[in-house]
């Protein structure tokens, strides 16, 4: 095809395509506008129907009460003032009622809720004549002007019959159309609308906006024709016979009464949003046509540039969608993390009781070898439970960390033997690092565990043999990104394998706790969750990249740290402080933990004073000046551990305090330096912690100093 002909086709398409899009968009938007409007009309009609039915039900019950009251009375008794007083009391709470009347068989009022002229007769009224001819049950009249009230009303009446079945007058309640109009105006949405209460034969009982009295819809009107075809409920569009305006209507039968409610909105009001949208669509279409025309006229190169812009737009849309999915995943993990963190905290309390009592029991049966073996097995099981809670706390980002500058190549080199034994001879380990790689700021023990976990996962993904590559690189993040990284300097530690990889569905759930693709008994599903929690708590993140059949890469992004001092190492030897006997105030709200910890303290030759709350602890401190040390839990009802520490420091500033808790995240307290003992703890760990508190010159053992979160 020649270039000239191609340009001519593009010129035609530049005008034709926007026109087609405009027509299609206009048709679609009109359908949407009409659908939304129909929902509004149907919903409003349902509200009007429910209101009208309740009003008629209330009036019917009121007529029934009057009938029950005068059923056994003679007309002289009915005409007594007490009956009219009863009608006045009955009418008072009925906002919809104008008046209540009892009329004899001749049409004369014998009792009423307001004053009346005894000479006046209603024998000529429509509802009186209908009820006199036959018993129609509850009858609704057309609108009329009351003779006594001089108010526009319509009557709801019921026939009274004598014992032999003869007509013996009626009871009727005059209702106010204005009451219904007020409700119509409150319930209807703003805009041009018509709300109508009509009788079954088309007589208009109430209408908003108000029109002349005694209006009636003829059988030829669209609304009455639709009611005749579908008596229960329906919708239609048509021209009103009262004001000749086209409207969209919905109506419902106020069963079991001979009345209907109808609600309609004028067509021009319904389509007003569509008209506004047409202007926008037209402007967009015209601008698009002009733009396309100029683009086609200029050259093919401009078209290629626009195509590139379209590709960029699609890419941005995909990035936005991916960011939204990551946000949803992050929110889900945050919710699960809060749940698992709470469970781990409670489980830590149970393990503290178990380990503490097992330690005490082992000390008491030193000569029983078989008992010692059984106890050792129980202790190992409890320690495995403690390790599991640490994984849960790692996932929920509530574990205790000791971050420091770590040289990644040096740390991995120190793990070589451990990795070789764990992975086996069929797995080749390759390391790649750039020169002068900056250190990372992280807890080295937790990073070792994370790398070992990733390596074992990689081995399991390669059933026969394969290669695991551990690498690292420095990265700069200039702006906050959708992975949750703040601007700054980072080191990305990567563990890659040549295994089976994961599909998109598995990759999306990989960091969820307890999710695993391994067989039964081969994995807890907490490994990646723990690594994710470690990375986030350390100020970084975890990214997973995988492709089925090719392999998986796990990236741990960690903030850069200060340079590692030469010869520095983690876990230098700590000298155990000398033992000192104290009077210890133990504050713990969990009775089991309180009993177990008290037993360990007594076994260490300390004198224990127990308190089950912060309030009780303060009272004991005031009454017992011999207290040498306070050991307190944090998560307690009433006064928390940190609040207790503040009050103790304010009154007894020299009092040593040890905070025992399973949570790493504590509320910020300015100026507090609180030694921490992490639950669950062993007897020896408790001994070392107490010694470090009462002997400040010694470094604490298993004591985590308070830090602000």
TrEMBL record:
The keyword Ribonucleoprotein does not apply. SUPFAM superfamilies: ATPase domain of HSP90 chaperone/DNA topoisomerase II/histidine kinase, CheY-like, Homodimeric domain of signal transducing histidine kinase. InterPro entries: CheY-like_superfamily, HATPase_C_sf, HATPase_dom, His_kinase_dom, HisK_dim/P_dom, HisK_dim/P_sf, Sig_transdc_His_kin-like_C, Sig_transdc_resp-reg_receiver. It catalyses: ATP + protein L-histidine = ADP + protein N-phospho-L-histidine. Its EC number is 2.7.13.3. Residues 342-562 form the Histidine kinase domain. It comes from the Bacteria. Keywords: Phosphoprotein, Plasmid. It is an enzyme of class 2 (transferase). The modification 4-aspartylphosphate is found at residue 633. GO terms for molecular function: phosphorelay sensor kinase activity. Residues 583-694 form the Response regulatory domain. The keyword DNA damage does not apply. Pfam families: HATPase_c, HisKA, Response_reg. This is histidine kinase.
């Amino acid at each position: 095809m020649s270039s000239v002909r191609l340009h001519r086709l593009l010129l035609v398409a530049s005008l034709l395509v926007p026109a087609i899009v405009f027509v299609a968009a206009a048709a679609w938007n009109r359908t949407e506008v009409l659908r939304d409007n129909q929902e509004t009309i149907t919903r409003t009609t349902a509200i009007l129907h429910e209101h009208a039915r309740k009003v008629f039900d209330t009036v019917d019950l009121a007529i029934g009460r009057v009938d029950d009251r005068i059923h056994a009375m003679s007309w002289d008794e009915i005409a007594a003032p007490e009956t009219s007083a009863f009608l006045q009391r009955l009418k008072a709470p009925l906002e919809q009622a104008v008046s209540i009347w009892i009329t004899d068989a001749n049409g004369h009022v014998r009792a009423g809720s307001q004053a009346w002229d005894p000479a006046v007769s209603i024998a000529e009224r429509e509802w009186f004549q209908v009820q006199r001819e036959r018993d129609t049950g509850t009858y609704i009249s057309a609108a009329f002007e009351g003779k006594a009230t001089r108010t526009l009303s319509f009557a709801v009446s019921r026939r009274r019959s004598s014992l032999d079945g003869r007509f013996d007058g009626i009871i009727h309640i005059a209702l106010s159309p204005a009451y219904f109009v007020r409700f119509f105006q409150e319930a209807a949405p703003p805009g041009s609308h018509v709300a109508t209460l009509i009788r079954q034969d088309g007589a208009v009982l109430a209408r908003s906006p108000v029109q002349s009295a005694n209006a009636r819809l003829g059988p030829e009107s669209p609304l009455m024709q639709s009611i005749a075809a579908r008596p229960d409920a329906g919708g239609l569009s048509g021209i009103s016979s009262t004001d000749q305006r086209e409207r969209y209507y919905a109506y419902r039968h106020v069963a079991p009464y001979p009345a209907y409610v109808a609600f309609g909105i004028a067509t021009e009001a319904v389509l007003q949003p569509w008209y506004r949208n047409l202007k926008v669509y037209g402007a967009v279409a015209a601008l698009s046509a002009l733009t396309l025309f100029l683009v086609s006229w200029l050259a093919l190169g401009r078209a290629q540039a626009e195509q590139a812009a379209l590709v960029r737009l699609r890419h941005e849309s995909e990035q936005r969608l991916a960011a939204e999915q990551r946000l949803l995943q992050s929110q889900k993990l945050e919710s699960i993390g809060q749940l698992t963190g709470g469970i781990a905290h409670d489980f830590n309390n149970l393990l503290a009781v178990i380990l503490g009592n097992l330690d005490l029991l082992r000390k008491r049966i030193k000569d029983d070898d078989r008992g010692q073996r059984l106890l050792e097995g129980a202790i190992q099981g409890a320690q495995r439970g403690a390790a599991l809670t640490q994984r849960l706390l790692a996932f929920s980002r509530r574990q205790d960390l000791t971050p420091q500058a770590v040289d990644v190549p040096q740390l991995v080199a120190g793990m070589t033997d451990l990795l070789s034994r764990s992975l086996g001879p069929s797995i080749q380990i390759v390391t790649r690092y750039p020169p002068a790689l900056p250190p990372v700021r992280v807890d080295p023990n937790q990073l070792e565990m994370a790398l070992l976990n990733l390596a074992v996962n990689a081995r399991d993904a390669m059933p026969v043999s394969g290669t695991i590559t551990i690498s690292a690189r420095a990265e700069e993040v200039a702006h906050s990104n959708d992975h949750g990284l703040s601007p700054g300097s980072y080191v990305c530690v990567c563990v890659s394998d040549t295994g089976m990889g994961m599909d998109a569905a598995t990759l999306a759930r990989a960091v969820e706790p307890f999710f695993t693709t391994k067989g039964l008994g081969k994995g807890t599903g907490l490994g990646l969750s723990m690594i994710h929690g470690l990375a986030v708590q350390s100020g970084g993140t975890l990214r997973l990249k995988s492709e089925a059949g090719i392999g998986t890469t796990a990236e741990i992004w960690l903030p850069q740290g200060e340079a590692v001092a030469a010869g520095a190492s983690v876990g230098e030897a700590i000298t155990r402080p000398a033992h000192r006997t104290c009077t210890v105030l133990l504050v713990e709200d969990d009775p089991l933990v309180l009993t177990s910890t008290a037993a360990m303290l007594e076994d260490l030759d300390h004198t224990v004073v127990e308190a089950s709350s912060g309030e009780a602890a303060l009272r004991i401190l005031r009454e017992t000046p011999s207290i040498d040390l306070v050991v307190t839990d944090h998560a307690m009802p009433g006064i928390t551990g940190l609040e207790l520490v503040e009050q103790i420091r304010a009154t007894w500033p020299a009092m040593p305090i040890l905070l025992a808790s399973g949570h790493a995240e504590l509320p910020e307290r300015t100026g507090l330096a609180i030694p921490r003992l992490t639950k669950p703890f062993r007897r020896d760990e408790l001994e070392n912690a107490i010694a470090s508190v009462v002997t400040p010159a010694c470094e604490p053992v298993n004591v985590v100093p308070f830090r602000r979160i």
